[in-house]
Design brief:
Keywords: Isomerase
GO molecular function, one term: UDP-N-acetylglucosamine 2-epimerase activity
Enzyme class: isomerase
Number of helices: 7
Strand content: 5-15%
CATH architecture of the largest domain: 3-Layer(aba) Sandwich
Number of strands: 6
Protein name: UDP-N-acetylglucosamine 2-epimerase (non-hydrolyzing)
Helix content: 40-55%
Structural class: alpha/beta
InterPro entries: UDP_GlcNAc_Epimerase_2_dom (IPR003331), WecB-like (IPR029767)
Radius of gyration: 19 Å
CATH superfamily of the largest domain: Glycogen Phosphorylase B
CATH topology of the largest domain: Rossmann fold
């Protein structure tokens, strides 16, 4: 309903969630062009990550413009038959958000406490990372932080 009411020039969807797929499908049914942010990421195993990989691929089929985070993601799209003129390498939105925060001198007591350190940004949100895989990641990060005193970890929970 909102697409028919607002009549946007394009619907932008981000990522590989069911919400992303649903937004793209609604735009497709309304014959509204679709732009996909974080396009071209692939495992080529429709069950891993599940259901994100199949969401990525189906949104990729419907999308008109593909905003790929990396060169490799863009190459995946080319291999799938997407026209290069419809692909833009835009970078990673999580990194962009971190850089924006740094550039705009965002401050918090935690950042001030570690202001002279180099930050490691860790994001993890897939169900298959829960449990042992994440414990292994945390152990590896802990080892790095213990070994290199100039490091601090930023782990945005989402």
């Amino acid at each position: 309903d909102i697409i028919q009411k607002e009549v946007p020039d394009m619907v932008l969807v981000h990522g590989d969630t069911v919400t992303t797929f649903s937004g793209a499908l609604a735009a497709f049914y309304s014959q509204t062009p679709i732009g996909h942010v974080e396009a071209g990421l692939r495992s080529y195993n429709k069950y891993s990550p599940y259901p994100e990989e199949i969401n990525r691929q189906m949104v990729g089929v419907m999308a008109d413009l593909h905003f790929a985070p990396t060169y490799n993601a863009a190459q995946n799209l080319v291999k799938e038959g997407k026209l290069a003129k419809h692909i833009a390498i835009t970078g990673n939105t999580a990194i962009d958000a971190m850089n924006y925060t740094i550039d705009h001198q965002y401050s918090s007591s935690i950042i001030q406490k570690h202001k002279n350190k180099n930050f490691i940004l860790l994001t993890a949100h897939r169900r298959e990372n829960i449990g042992k895989p994440m414990i292994n990641v945390f152990k590896a990060i802990r080892k790095l932080i213990d070994e290199y005193q100039d490091l601090a970890l930023v782990y945005p929970m989402h």
